[in-house]
Design goal:
The chain has 256 residues and is α/β, with parallel strands linked by helices. The protein contains 7 helices and 7 strands; from the N terminus they run H-E-H-E-E-H-E-H-E-H-E-H-H-E. 40% of the residues lie in helices and 14% in strands.
Length: 256
């Protein structure tokens, strides 16, 4: 093995790191937890649902919309593992509603899980993070590209990007990095439910295509959760030591 290869592997390694991942029961969160563990991390997996796949993580089942959930989760991580080195906020909710039928209840639900919960977790975790540690928030390309049938979801993800930028600026002097990842359409259960809702309501898919027709993605397909997880784990690692305050698109080249 060459010295360059050894250096690359050491930069990518998450060995001895304790990484807390929310939304870890399925989709992007599950892929992030799996890859982080494969790179050597101790993973504390958080979700309101019981896992259907991997069971050998340290699981913490909680409803993150509860007022003290963020502090409870971080305290549990510290009690069980003694530290926290990385936080991945991947838990989320997505409801498809035509703009003129959207409700305040839907808006409140989306902000509670997509925005307030990550903010609470960042606030709870930040005092225990140190030089070289990292937070990654899973936002969405809809934070930057208007979607009339995703008003609640898109606005909550836009708010999450803004919170990411604020946290990055505040924590940078301590050497703590904070970034957002903005996926396009990913093959997850949540995306499948959204596609089914659009088809049922005869709504257009992203890019203006009729429901059920292919979306224009230059790479010709949706992302796999593992492809998003690769970017997330890069940002958690020392390989991304000079990257903070960024909103990184993972869209296959799609801009709509």
């Amino acid at each position: 093995m060459t010295s360059a290869t050894q250096l690359l592997r050491s930069h990518w390694s998450l060995t001895s790191q304790v990484i807390l991942v929310t939304g870890a029961a399925s989709g992007i969160g599950a892929a992030c937890a799996e890859l982080a563990a494969g790179l050597g991390a101790t993973v504390m997996a958080v979700d309101r649902d019981h896992p259907t796949a991997r069971h050998d993580f340290d699981w913490h089942t909680v409803d993150l919309t509860q007022p003290m959930a963020g502090q409870t989760v971080v305290s549990s991580c510290l009690d069980r593992h003694g530290c926290i080195n990385g936080l991945v906020n991947a838990a989320g909710v997505l409801t498809v509603e035509p703009w003129d039928q959207a409700s305040l209840g839907t808006l409140d639900e989306h902000y509670a899980i997509n925005c307030r919960a990550p903010f609470a977790l960042m606030m709870a975790a930040a005092p225990h993070l140190g030089q070289g540690d990292s937070i990654v928030n899973i936002a969405s390309i809809t934070a930057q590209v208007p979607r009339p049938d995703l008003a609640a979801y898109a606005s909550s993800k836009s708010a999450l990007v803004s919170l990411t930028n604020s946290a990055a600026a505040h924590l940078a002097p301590r050497g703590i990095r904070v970034n957002a990842v903005l996926p396009g359409t990913v093959d997850t259960p949540m995306a499948q439910r959204a596609a089914a809702a659009r088809s049922l309501n005869h709504l257009a898919e992203p890019g203006g295509h009729a429901a059920g027709t292919p979306i224009s993605v230059p790479l010709g397909r949706n992302a796999k959760p593992s492809e998003v997880a690769t970017v997330v784990c890069f940002l958690l690692s020392n390989a991304a030591s000079y990257i903070t305050g960024e909103a990184i698109r993972v869209t296959g080249g799609a801009n709509n």
